[in-house]
Design goal:
With 416 residues, this protein is an alpha+beta fold. It is built from 15 helices and 14 strands. The strands form five sheets. The chain has a five-stranded mixed sheet with strand order 1-2-10-7-3. A three-stranded antiparallel sheet has the order 4-14-11. A two-stranded antiparallel ribbon has the order 5-6. It has one domain: Cytochrome p450.
C-alpha cells in the first residue's frame, strides 16, 4: 500500500485562526502547492481528509461530480458537529441545502431558484443595485471622515439587495444579519453565539423557526418574490418539505449576502493597499469588470468545499480510497502559479482570470451573476467619488474554515 503523503503545512486548512493571518496562510499554501499538492491532513477534533491545493486538481474533482460527491461531507466542520448535522439530515430534520446535495436531487432543487438569477432577472435588479450603491456611498459621506467600512457599509449593502429579492420585511434585516454572522462565524470568538456544537445547532433552529413561519405565510398568500417561488415550488408534482424550503432560504439569505460583503470589504482593502491600482481604475472605469473579478479572486470568500470519493480513485497519482474526503482549497487554487502570473499581485486589469471563487461545474454558485453585479454597481459609484482614502487602523479577518473575510476595516477618507 502506498504511504500517505503528509505535510505539516496542511494543518492550516483545519485551523480557523490561520485564515485570519494572510501571511501565514499563503506561505503554507504555496509550500503545499510546490511540495505536497495532495496531502493527508489528520488534525485533532476533525475527521481526516486530503488537502487539494492545485487549480487543475480542484477543477478535475469538480468535473467528476458522480465520482466525488457532496454528500455526506460538503464542508469542513469539527467531528462532533459533523456527526450531529449528518444524523439530523438522515432523519429528515437537518439542514440540507444545495451544497449538501448531489444530482439528480441537486439539479431539481437548483432549478427552483435559477430563473431569479438569470441575465433577464439581473437586468431588472440592476437599477436597484445602483440605487442602493448610491445610498451607501452617500452614507459614507455623512458618517466620514472615518468609519469601519466592513461593519457599517459592506455588510449592509448586499444584505438589503438579497433580502429585498426574497421579499423579507426591512424590520427583519438586522435579525438575518445577526444569524448569518453566527452561522458563518462559528469559529470566531467575536461572531460566534457560543463555542459548543449545540450553539451552532441553536442558530440553525432559529433560522428554521423564522423561515417555517414565512413558508406558511407565502403558501397561504403568495407574493411576487423569491420566497414565494421557493415556498410554492414542486418537484415531480410534490411540494417541498418544510426542511427543504427552510434550507433553501438559509443558503440564499445567508450566503447570498455574506460572501458578497466579504468581497466588497476585501476588494476595498486591496485598493487601499495598492493606490496605483486604485488610480488606474479611476483613470479607466472600463476596467471595472476585470477589477471586480480580481477582487473576488484575491478575497476568495468561500474558502473550501469538500467532496467524498464514491469509489477508489487517485488524484495526481495519489490513491484516494472510497469513502475518503478531499478538501478543495479555493484560496490556494486562486493563487496557483501554474495559472496566474505573479499570483500574489493585485491587478485590476488581470485578463484572463480563471479564479475558482464561485466553484466550478454543476455546483457553480447560483448567485454569481448577482454578486458580480452588486460589486460592479458599488465600486462604480464609490471610486469616482474618492478624493483620498487610507487605513485608520489594522484590518481584522474572521477566523473560519468555510466562509469569511474582513470583519473590521477602519478607514479614513474624503469623498465628493
Amino acid at each position: 500500500m502506498t504511504a500517505r503523503i503528509m505535510d505539516d503545512a496542511g494543518r492550516v486548512l483545519a485551523a480557523p485562526q490561520s485564515y485570519a493571518d494572510e501571511a501565514q496562510l499563503h506561505t503554507a499554501l504555496a509550500h503545499l502547492r510546490a511540495h505536497a499538492p495532495v496531502s493527508w491532513v489528520d488534525v485533532e477534533g476533525y475527521r481526516p481528509f486530503w488537502a487539494i491545493t492545485r487549480h487543475a486538481d480542484v477543477m478535475d474533482i469538480e468535473r467528476q461530480n458522480d465520482l466525488f460527491t457532496n454528500d455526506p461531507r460538503p464542508i469542513l466542520v469539527v467531528a462532533d458537529l459533523d456527526e450531529k448535522l449528518r444524523a439530523d439530515r438522515e432523519a429528515g430534520i437537518g439542514l440540507s441545502t444545495l451544497i449538501h446535495m448531489d444530482d439528480p436531487h441537486h439539479r431539481d432543487m437548483r432549478k427552483i431558484g435559477a430563473d431569479w438569477f438569470r441575465p433577464k432577472a439581473m437586468r431588472a435588479l440592476k437599477s436597484r443595485c445602483d440605487e442602493l450603491a448610491k445610498v451607501y456611498v452617500d452614507q459614507m459621506v455623512q458618517r466620514g471622515p472615518e468609519l469601519d467600512f466592513s461593519q457599517e457599509i459592506a455588510v449592509n449593502y448586499p444584505l438589503y439587495v438579497i433580502l429585498s429579492l426574497l421579499g423579507l420585511p426591512e424590520s427583519d434585516f438586522p435579525r438575518m444579519l445577526k444569524l448569518t454572522q453566527e452561522l458563518f462565524g462559528g469559529d470566531d470568538t467575536e461572531l460566534q453565539r457560543g463555542e459548543s456544537s449545540d450553539a451552532m445547532i441553536a442558530v440553525l433552529l432559529d433560522f428554521f423557526a423564522y423561515f417555517s413561519a414565512l413558508t406558511a405565510s407565502r403558501r397561504e398568500r403568495p407574493t411576487e418574490d423569491l420566497t414565494s417561488a421557493i415556498a410554492n415550488a414542486t418537484i415531480d408534482g410534490q411540494p417541498l418539505s418544510d426542511m427543504d424550503t427552510a434550507s433553501y432560504y438559509v443558503i440564499v439569505a445567508s450566503a447570498g449576502h455574506d460572501t458578497t460583503s466579504a468581497g466588497i470589504a476585501g476588494g476595498l482593502l486591496e485598493l487601499v493597499r495598492h493606490p496605483g491600482e486604485l488610480q488606474r481604475l479611476k483613470n479607466d472605469p472600463g476596467l471595472m469588470g476585470t477589477a471586480v473579478e480580481e477582487m473576488i479572486r484575491c478575497t476568495t470568500p468561500v474558502k473550501e468545499f469538500m467532496r467524498t470519493a464514491h469509489a477508489d480513485t487517485e488524484v495526481r497519482g495519489v490513491p484516494i480510497a472510497k469513502g475518503e474526503s478531499v478538501l478543495l482549497s479555493y484560496v490556494s487554487a486562486n493563487r496557483d502559479e501554474e495559472v496566474f502570473s505573479d499570483p500574489m499581485r493585485f491587478d485590476v486589469g488581470r485578463d484572463p482570470n480563471k479564479h475558482l471563487s464561485f466553484g466550478y461545474g454543476v455546483h457553480f454558485c447560483l448567485g454569481a451573476a448577482l454578486a458580480r453585479m452588486e460589486m460592479h454597481s458599488f465600486f462604480s459609484e464609490l471610486i469616482p467619488r474618492i478624493n483620498s482614502i487610507e487605513l485608520a487602523g489594522e484590518p481584522e479577518l474572521s477566523a473560519t474554515t468555510f466562509v469569511g473575510g474582513i470583519k473590521h476595516l477602519p478607514i479614513r477618507y474624503s469623498l465628493t
